[in-house]
Amino acid sequence: MSSGTTVPPIPSELMTINVGPSHPATHGTLRLQLQLDGETIVNSACEIGYLHRGFEKQCETVYYQFVIPYAERLNYMGPVHNSNAWCHACEQMLGIEAPPRAQALRVITSEMGRIIDHAVCIGTNLVDIGALTNFWYMYNYREKIYDLYEELCGARMMVNYPRIGGVSQDAPDGWFEKLLRVVDEMQEAVGDVRALVERNRIFMDRTIGAGAISKELALSHGVTGPCLRATGIPYDVRKAQPYWGYDKYQFDVPTAEGGDTYDRTIVRFQEMYESCKIIRQAVAAMPGGPVMVDDHLVALPEKDKVYNTMEGLINHFKLVMHGIQPPKGELYSATEGGCGELGFYIVSDGSAKPWRVRIRPPCFANYSTFPKIIQGAMVADAIAALGSINIIAGELDR
Amino acid sequence: MTEREIMARVQAKLGAKVLQAYEFRGQCAVTIAPSELRPLLTWLRDDSDIQTDWLLDVGGVDYLGYSPTDGSGDDDREWRYEVAYQLYSMRHNHRFRVKVAVAEPNLVVPSVWDLWGIANWMEREVWDLYGIRFEGHPNLRRILCHDEFVGHALRKDYPINKRQKLTSPVENILCEKAEWA
Description:
heterodimer, A: mainly alpha, Cytochrome-c3 Hydrogenase, chain B, three-stranded antiparallel sheet, 17 helices, 8 strands, 47% helix, B: alpha/beta, Beta Polymerase, domain 2, two-stranded parallel ribbon, 3 helices
């Protein structure tokens, strides 16, 4: 077009499109409305709540220990961390601490959860942008981790494993050896997938700069977890305010610089390695002893005592019928979940039912940045960014 | 700085304006009137020793019928609702909680969405579930419940088993300005 003529601007008007609430790229039930100028997003809004189940209301109507299975339905990609965290919050309310062996088992189950959470996030995110192979690698090992959960306590996904004051049962014989084998295999699979994408030209072109969260935006929106660390801020509750003996384990907090989709993916890969490291250390330093506190106000008595002694029977009856009763008070308990800081703000009136349970869902804060990070981007970039923020609707909508 | 020291500083600064000061298991909180909220949060954020520059959570609590079983009475609260702001300082690695007392019939709290982006959605959630209005919020729509939902689900007088008809979705959810969304 060197003849000197100018092309007149093509008349166009803004187009509004909906993505979701039921759409393959949303991996859950999210609705996204985009206003497009050509293919550029000029305005957008998110609508959430499609999976709102009244979790917090439900918690107010049941005893503390009956919230454990509900809590796992928050972040159902790494479910056991949520129930671990809930039990931890209740223990803080009660002013007790789980025995060291139970804490180590919580660390192991939580880190297994983090690995599969990240595996699913990376796998599905890559599917969204056209790379299917990685998904199978990742899901393969997710199954093996589910097998381990099954052996540990009988359930695969919603394991209902922890209890207030400890965990429900000790690991069976030979479980740790199997765990270490799976961790080794998992790490190899992670390495394979990482090798497929890390220096992959297509992947890099597709994701570098897409959906970048700046440091300022992350701080303003309370972004936590891999999304925050990808911006270069090394905040991790496990390091900042350690719980369950995380201070005893040697691990790094991976960070990146750009805060974009690429960095988030790489930070997740690195975190999976770190989780493998933590699991190995926890197994190597596994303390002996009980997995439940010795406190009749919290722990159910052994079955033998329930069936054969009056005291045991009464104790069991009281705990099941009247519940665990923390003192009057309120408390905010934070742990590091797969998506970021998972907080439980509990208000107790001294009865067996919590007066108020407020969950600080990491996804909620992370997702609230979304309209800002896709401003001026293409629709395809928005889809790539959506997957890499790792929005779990169960946690987002509660 | 421990949470107790932060609380002491807040008490020294605000004096009688602190309606309740509270400590449990090493965690401290102060309750203040809505009008004090924005000055206090900005002061906590800007004070170099405290610097709680991170707002992590905003959540409502309804104290209707709250009567602790330990015989301490009804906790002599003269207000029904509280909105709790969980603050964190990344530099000093400490947390603090500020609560706003919201009494009927005037359920209004100044919005802090311009100070922290997270407050936008969090305040919408408190509005949705408790019916507390946030003054100055640009887009105070329901967020978890659907738009034609009647009542506020987390209030203590909202029955747990109440059912409501699910209405059709809102056609247009875009805001006038993109940063309001």
